[in-house]
Amino acid sequence: MSTAPPNVPPDVPPTALPTAAPNVPKAPHSMRMRLLIGATIWLSGSLLVVFGVLALSVSQSLERTVQRQLGFEVDSLVAAVDIGDGGDIAVEYEPPNPLFSRPYSGWYWQIRHGDTVLRSRSLWDWDDLLDARPSHTPKGTLHIRRMQDPYGRELQIAERDVYLPGLKGALHVTVAADRSELIRERSTLLTVLGGALLLLFLVLLLTVHFLVSITLRPLYTLQNQLELMRETPEKRLGGAQPRELAPLSNAFNAVLDHDADLISKARTHVGNLAHGLKTPLSILATQAETLDPAQREIILREVSIMKRLVERHLARARSVTGSATIRGVRVDAGRASRRLATTMNALYREGPQITLDCGNDAVFIGDEDDLMEMLGNLLDNACKWAAGQVRLSARATRPDGLVLTVEDDGPGLAGDEAESARQRGARLDDTVAGHGLGLDIVQDLASLYGGTLTLDRSFLLGGLRAELRFPAMVPPPARPA
């Protein structure tokens, strides 16, 4: 197994340092969609009920109209009956409806008294079409029924038993009317009614859409202000908010002011702590030089451990407080890479050649200092161990996603050394300067943005390959106010 110095700095964390991206739940329907869907269901249900009620009322009204007309025809026939001296019956005049005279017109009448039967001309040769049928209604009551004529037309039948003075037995009077006209009239009325209600539905739906847009406009304005705050953290929610949103806006501004104050104090404390601890540790290291070798070695080793711990925790505190203030700024990863390459070339004048391969759409969503800190540690690590080449690439994976890769042509990481490197803060080679914190800080910063850091062998250059992968973090833009 290779015993070459590892292609990682003394501060290498585990060979693979994945940090699981947060599980982002599927966004539910917007309030706008919920209101519109609810209004659509409510309006359609209500108008369907209204249509059903009106359709029933129209049908019943038309039926009553036809029944009244048939009842009028029955009364007209009874009034036209003439009773002779021998008890014979006759019709003095034809009913005024001309359809009773047209053969098979659909309008028929018949009067039966015993064996005597009088019929309209429209019945022509249909002698038994309107024969009397048993009626279970009280005497004199108009009885309504339906039947079909030989042509398949549906007929509305109105019949009544009439008792006239000087006439033995009941006079059974029957009038039939074709229902086709009734059906056509009802269909026309229901079509007009349905079209009117559909038009009303569309008008009401557009009205609801307009009212929802007007009502939710302050929320869109608030969302736009929040998006601006992601890019400019010092901004606050402002403007004239509706009475329902004003308490939320004021409380949110108060929380932001409180957090900004806490972060500012934390930064101050971090700086003070750094100066307060580094000076005594430096004095201890200087004083240890005057001691005998055994004691000097023990004290210097413990001072070195303390310095590494201080640097580690201070760096982590700086990274947390620094990135907590800016989470929505769009940073050009290509420009940051070029700046770092220039710095590394100046720092390692006799060092490796740094090659950049950055796409124009490579954008980091967050604090530029955090990006520079992560890339700086990875490039510094690569430059320390590279034989002659270092390659830095930046690619957008999807809208607002980013992959940063740093590769070199150094000796790489052997299997047994990889196990040692998994120890956080471990140093595999004390001949190289460092505090054992570089990739540890990179991992911490990446996790703040939901990113992952992985270390493996470069297929392109043969050395170490460090990859930073960041998911999309910016929500969809707000609707225009």
From TrEMBL:
GO cellular component: plasma membrane
Localisation: Membrane
Keyword annotations: Kinase, Membrane, Phosphoprotein, Transferase, Transmembrane, Transmembrane helix
Taxonomic superkingdom: Bacteria
Span list, region Disordered: 1-23
Bias kind Pro residues: ranges: 1-16
Reaction(s) this enzyme catalyzes, per UniProt: ATP + protein L-histidine = ADP + protein N-phospho-L-histidine
InterPro entries membership: HATPase_C_sf (IPR036890), HATPase_dom (IPR003594), His_kinase_dom (IPR005467), HisK_dim/P_dom (IPR003661), HisK_dim/P_sf (IPR036097), Sig_transdc_His_kin-like_C (IPR004358), TCS_sensor_his_kinase (IPR050428)
Segments forming domain Histidine kinase: 272-474
EC number: 2.7.13.3
GO molecular function: phosphorelay sensor kinase activity
Transmembrane segments: 35-58, 189-212
Record has Transferase as a keyword: yes
Keyword Endoplasmic reticulum: no
Predominant subcellular localization, coarse grouping: membrane
CDD domains for this protein: HisKA
The protein's enzyme class: transferase
Annotated Pfam families: HATPase_c
PANTHER family registered for this protein in UniProt: SENSOR HISTIDINE KINASE TRCS, SENSOR HISTIDINE KINASE YKOH
Name under which the protein is recorded: histidine kinase
